[in-house]
Amino acid sequence: MEEAITILSQIGQALHYAHQQHVIHRDIKPENILFNEKGDALLADFGIATVLTTASAKQTTILGTPSYMAPEQFRGIISSESDQYALGCIAYELLTLRKPFTAPDLVALMFKHVTEHPVPPKQLNPQLPVYVEQAILKALEKERLDRYTDVFSFIKAISGTKEQWLEEGNAHYKARRKEEALAAFEQAILRDPNDASLYDHKGKSLMWLWRYEEALEAFEQAIRLDPNNASAYCNKGTVLRWLDRDDEALAMYNRAIELAPDAAWQHHNKAIHLKELGRDEESLQSFRLVTRLDPNNVDAWANIWDILTSGRIDMDKEARRREARQAHERVNELGGHALIALAEYDPRTEPYGDDYDDDLYE
Prior knowledge:
Layout: H1 2-20, E1 23-24, E2 33-35, E3 41-43, E4 50-51, E5 57-59, E6 77-79, H2 80-96, H3 106-115, H4 121-124, H5 130-139, H6 151-159, H7 162-174, H8 178-191, H9 196-208, H10 212-225, H11 230-242, H12 246-259, H13 264-276, H14 280-293, H15 298-308, H16 317-333
Antiparallel strand pairs: 1-4, 2-3, 5-6
């Protein structure tokens, strides 16, 4: 399979470059794949290629090799997605040793390409990874807009490693592109469905898409795979908190802290929850612990200031003023003066405010 993926990647890269120049090959087939002396695959025979101008598809004469023609190509419509479909046919053939469709005559073959779905590749090659099968079937979708946005995306779906998808997912997550992050983490899971941390990443993306029940499922799967995954417990606690399942949320935070007592962000989430419940003295103790573990946690200092100046804490007046003054000074030193007013901040309704930092809710 590795050799087949390499061939597909090399041809896909060549095809992607051609598409960037607005050139559509129109006749991708095994006979047009050549190899140099190093064994590298080369895409040949651009004899019936055409150039797209401004449109993404073009009506033209019906040309090509029927076994590798996209449904729309039989109607004289060509596009980069048509080339992608042909490459999907080659991928199917390379990895199953069978063409997606065969028929005794041209009309019957055209009918199959236009109306029928191919036999799932794993039925013909049980060793094929699920993610490869899914990638091929997406490239062979009947409607061209249901295929990948470009050939590069198709090749990446077939050949990308778990580590590459995880890195991409983290980059999207940091850039707050949560849908793209979720898609990348799901690709990573397909490559290693027993990695608990991947479900934790998936759950975080679902959290910030407000898909809470799905997020809970992801965190629960992470915990099933790794019962000592403190991050999954803590993140599950935050989802439960947002669902107003307060006792369950607190139990999850306590379990996370039991597993990772020096993780400041877990104490922070528990402190936020206690504050929301009106348990200010317990919340204050938790925020104090956060600042001992992470002296530069501006959010914790701001919450300490807010609790101490609320008048809801029963403690010596001078000691309260002294601690509140210290907290206020730390907030200003850390450049977080705007956070002094964060008492009513709720990430469920303002997930991307100017002062928002989702690292606090890992």
